[in-house]
Amino acid sequence: MASTSTTPAYTNSDQARAQAAFTASLRIAGSMTVGGAFYGFMSTAAALCAHSLIQTRQSRSRKQLTFLLAYVGTLWLAGTAVVVGMAGVAIDAYVIHASTSLQSPYVQNLAPGGFTSVADIPLWIICMLSDGMMVWRFKVVWSMSRFYRYLLAAPIILYLGTSILGFLAFVVFSKLPVTAGDSTTFNVYLVTAMFLSSFCLNVYITAFIAGRLFLYRRRFKANWGMPGSRHYSSMGTILIDSYVPLTVCTVPFLATYLINNPAEYMVAVILGEMQIIAPLVVMIRVSRGVAWDSSMASESLEDAVDRMIEAQSLRIV
After folding, report:
1. What single DSSP character describes residue 8?
2. Membrane-spanning regions, if any (predicted)?
């Protein structure tokens, strides 16, 4: 991960070593302990999603099933690479180069390439796949609204910005140093802009999907009472389908990254895994028919509610 601040002048070597030891503990705990735990959650979500897709394969074509399974597999492989890369960076810094890494907390950023690329490039791939899923969910929920064509422009621009900035930072300029020199500043700006673009996309889509589903919930409740778990509008459903957990996890990462706090390495691993878990949970709900999908979006919001109320009235009669 790139650093966002310059090296301060330490006058107390003991203080520098103490801060370096603290940073080392956070990086090791983040990449191995916390990262391993969230990797387990992510692997479980991937297995459940693949199982659910296969179990409900009758509802989709073979090409669709293959594409969705490939999507899940790619996310899992990228998530595995992030954890391996972060762990490799920690081992390289605090085992192989321990004599220099523990002198100052700012001597621990490794040169580009190696385990750094193993962690950074998959993190960018995860970001693209996760954000792409969010844009698709936005389309599903809002496609029949008369405001859809105007609302879609912002997420597309933000998604393209995230993809292009990440490609430039982690692929085109991956050989540039990230700890010193003018090229470092340029690369750090690219990475920072990429994360900010992704964060803005998350907030935008979360707000509009949650707002759409909340309006659906309010009208449903006014006409029929409290909606059930299969009515796409319980509060838990709104939180999950609008990617609130992912957006919440992005905030501490941006905060620690922008102020160059050592906790950024721990939060980066958590964010990388959450970017996989969040879309997989939504895919599980879609495959089981308990999330807002294209069959609901094919009619207007009001018509969807009216059809459900009419169907319930017929059952009562």
Report:
1. P
2. 36-54, 66-90, 150-173, 193-215, 236-259, 265-286
Q: Which of 217, 280, 245 is nearest to 43 (CA)?
A: 280
Residues 6+ apart with CB under 8 A from 173: 183, 186, 187, 190
Q: Are 53 and 287 in contact (CB under 8 A)?
A: yes
The CA distance from 80 to 85, in Å, is: 9
Q: Which two tokens stand for residue 78?
A: 């990228």
Provide DSSP, 51-111: HHHHHTGGGS-HHHHHHHHHHHHHHHHHHHHHHHHHHHHHHIIIIITHHHHTT-TTS-PPP
**For residue 299, what are its two tokens?**
């009619």
Q: Which CATH number fits domain 13-316: 1.20.1070, 1.20.1250, 1.10.10, 2.40.50?
A: 1.20.1070
Q: Rounded CA gap, 32 and 276, in Å?
A: 18
Query: Domain extents for the chain?
Result: 13-316
User: To which residue do tokens 């301060």 refer?
Assistant: 8
First-to-last C-alpha distance (Å) of the chain: 63
Tell me the Cα Rg of the chain: 22
**Nearest CA to 72 among 51, 57, 94?**
51
**DSSP state at residue 170:** I
> Helix (H) and strand (E) counts for the chain?
13, 0
